[in-house]
Amino acid sequence: ARPRILKFYPLYSPKLDREDFSRVKLMLHHPFQQVLDVRTFAGQEYQLFLQAYQNCLLVCNHPLPDSFGEVLPENEKEDPD
After folding, report:
1. β-sheet bridge partners, residue 10
2. Highest taxon of the source (predicted)?
3. Which of 6, 10, 45, 62 could form a disulfide with 40 if both were Cys (CB 3.0 to 4.6 A apart)?
4. Burial (CB count within 10 angstroms: exposed 0-12, middle 13-18, buried 19+), residue 79
């Protein structure tokens, strides 16, 4: 497929809008047909986008930048359990 430019708005803060920030990060790096599809990751369905994104950070390597900001601050990550 040809490279495409994605525009995303609004820009969510990883500190203030954690769930929305996590949803957008997952959408930028994982294929999906419906937005809720990105909550299913590595064969497990998560209740929150934040939980799925935290798992993604542990097991995925996304070498290309997405220009959507930094990952969640390490000291503010929640326990996925």
Report:
1. none
2. Eukaryota
3. 45
4. exposed
Q: Per-residue confidence at 66, pLDDT binned at 50, 70, 90? A: low
**H or E element at residue 54:** helix 49-59
For the record, the structure tokens of 55 come out as: 């798992």
Q: Percent of the chain scored above 70 by pLDDT?
A: 68
Map residue 75 onto helix, strand or coil.
helix
Q: Is there a contact between 72 and 43 (Cβ–Cβ < 8 Å)? A: no
Model confidence at 71, pLDDT cuts 50, 70, 90, reads low
Instruction: Return d(Cα 42, Cα 26) in angstroms, integer.
Output: 13
Q: What secondary structure does DSSP assign to 10-30, as a single string?
A: SPPPTTT-HHHHHHHHHHHHS
Q: φ and ψ at 45, to 5 degrees?
A: -95, 130
